[in-house]
Every structure is written in C-alpha cells, then in structure tokens.
Amino acid sequence: xxxxxxxxxxxxxxxxxxxxxxxxxxxxxxxxxxxxxxxxxxxxxxxxxxxxxxxxxxxxxxxxxxxxxxxxxxxxxxxxxxxxxxxxxxxxxxxxxxxxxxxxxxxxxxxxxxxxxxxxxxxxxxxxxxxxxxxxxxxxxxxxxxxxxxxxxxxxxxxxxxxxxxxxxxxxxxxxxxxx
Length: 180
Hints:
Elements: E1 2-5, E2 11-16, E3 26-32, E4 37-38, E5 44-46, E6 50-56, E7 61-66, E8 71-77, E9 82-83, E10 95-97, E11 103-109, E12 114-119, E13 124-130, E14 137-144, E15 154-158, E16 163-167, E17 174-177
Antiparallel strand pairs: 1-2, 2-3, 3-4, 3-5, 6-7, 7-8, 8-9, 8-10, 11-12, 12-13, 13-14, 15-16, 16-17
C-alpha cells in the first residue's frame, strides 16, 4: 500500500496491508535496491491494513499508519535494519492509538516534529508530536473538518507557508488550516 525510500535511496520501505485479515497482521518490509532483494530479517510485524508513510530523514525514522488498529508506528532505520523496540513487533512506546477510525494519509513537519494524519472514513485530522525518546508520540489535537461530507483522502503540510492542505473524495473542497 505505502512506499518510502530511505535518505540514501538504497532501501525501499513497503507497507503490506493484508486486506483479507486472514493472518491478522501486516508488515513493513525492507527491499535492498542494490540487490533487488527483500530483506526478510528486517521485516516488522504490525496490525492489518497498513497505509502510508512519513519519513524524517534527519532522524532516520519512518512513520506508518494502521487503519485496523487505529495506530501510528515509529520505526527506526539504522541504514540497514528497521526496528521499533526489542523484537520484530513494535513495543508499546513505539506506537500510539489514535482512537479515530481509519488513519490513512500522513504528512510531516520536521522542523516542529509534528505529524498530520487524515482519517479515511470520517473527516477527522489528528496532530501528533513525535520525540526522540520514549514514549515517542504525544497526541496534540484531533478535530473533524466541518465542510467534509466523508473522508480525508490526502493531507499535506507545506513547509513554505506553514499550512496544512486536506482533500476529500466526497467533497469538492480543499480545506486549508494553520496548525496551532
């Protein structure tokens, strides 16, 4: 579902969704672009229905969303291996329950260490502060965009004007807001 390159563009992170929920889980895989091989020992197991990534190239941290568990994951990448705790599943400090359905789209403000998450089914936006020490997330604010008649299809932070742009599949509107 989601793809994101590391800062050196040697590795591609791939979020797998598992739509049928048969295995009750999904994964983030690492593909070595030099060898064109999946690095199986670098796989991280997560909840089903993963979606999109954000990436802080200064910290070398990937963020990925799970629509099923309503969580966001903090994934460290040391240049060769992806981790989120002490095992191949993410420890509690490396994830945050958003308590709103279907987190789907994500954008990042690296300067202020903020993530903007758009929720697919209900028009909500979550603003999350991320940190370099555990616990790695702090939920700052959640709100519903009033003029949306459905979901948030995409969200984008503009570093130049410091505004967030939000689109919907069902509304012919792009909402713009300034983070507080």
